[in-house]
GroES-like superfamily (Arabidopsis thaliana x Arabidopsis arenosa), 303 residues
Amino acid sequence: MVKNFYLSCDPYMGILMRAPTPSTLALLDAFIPGKPIAGIGVSQVIDSDDPSFTKGDMIWGIVNWEEYSTINPAGIFKIDVNVNVPLSYYTGILGMIGLTAYAGFYEICSPKEGETVFVSAASGAVGQLVGQFAKLMGCYVVGSAGSKQKVDLLLNKFGYDEAFNYKEEPDLDSALKRCFPKGIDIYFENVGGKMLDAVLLNMKPYGRIAVCGMISQYHLETRDRLQNLPDIIFKKIRMQGFAVYDFIDRFPKFLEFVIPYIKEEKLTYVEDIVEGLENGPAALVGLLHGQNVGKQVLKVASE
Ligand code: NDP
C-alpha cells in the first residue's frame, strides 16, 4: 500500500478515455467508467508484503488517481532519495518522460553535431528536454509552441536558437522556411496534422522524423488528411513511431546520463504543479488544450 504524493497528467490518458480500438489496445488498457483512472505517480510505501519494498521507501510507477493505492510491485521503481532532486521529477525528467525524450532523440533520430532539429510542443514535458539534448549535442534547434509565454521559455530558459508561436503564425511553411532556410535534418514530432504536413515540405534529403506523439489528432472525429506524404519517398526520409515502454531496459543508463546534467545545472526542467486531487480533472483537460506551461503535475499530498 502506498500514499500518493504526485500524479502525472499525460496526453495518452485522454486516449484511454475513448472507446478502445485495436491499435490503442496494443498500448494500454482503456480506463473503465466508474473506476479510478490510473497513471504514473510518485508515492511512499505504507505497508508491503513484498520483500523488495519496505515501509518508508519512495517509489514511482502506475498508481490510481486517489490518496492511497494498493499496487502490484511489478513495474514499480524504487527512488534513490540520496539523489536529492524534487520528488515530482520522477513524474517527468527522471521517469517515463525523460526516457521518452532520451530514447526518441538519441536512438530514433540518430543525431549528429551541427544538424538542424525542429521540435513541436517544444516547451512541454518531453519537448523541453529534446530541445536541450539537441543543444547539448551541438545542433541548431527550433521549437514551436502555442503562446508567447511558451516561446519566451524556449528562447530564454531552454536555449532554443529560434522559436515561433504556431497559433499566431498559421502559415507554418513560411515560419519553417524562415527558421530553416536550408531545411530540417531532424523533426521530433509531438503534434501531427498540419504541422507534420508543413514539416515534410521542409525536410532535407535523408532527414529523420521521430514520431513521439500526435496530440492534435487524438480527439478528432475526422483526422487531418496530409498532402505532402510523398516527400517521404522523394527525400528518402526515415519516419519512425516509438513507445517509451520498448526502451525500459535503457532506464538505468538514462539516469546515469541525465542526473549529472541536472546536478551541474546544464539541464533545466519546468513543471506546472496543480495542488489537490479535486483539481486533477481540470489539469488533465487543460493539458489537452495547451494550458500547461511545462510538465503538468498534480500534487495530492505534501511530502
Ligand atoms: P506536453 O507537456 O507537451 O503537453 C501537451 C502540449 O501539446 C500542450 O501544452 C500544447 O502545447 C500541445 N497541444 C495540445 N493540443 C494541441 C493541438 N491540437 N495542436 C498542437 N499542439 C497541441 O505533453 P507531453 O510532453 O507529455 O507529450 C508530448 C507528446 O508526446 C504527446 O503527443 C504525447 O502523446 C507524446 N508522448 C509519447 C510517448 C511515447 O512513448 N511515444 C511518451 C510520452 C508522451 P502548445 O501550447 O505548445 O500547443
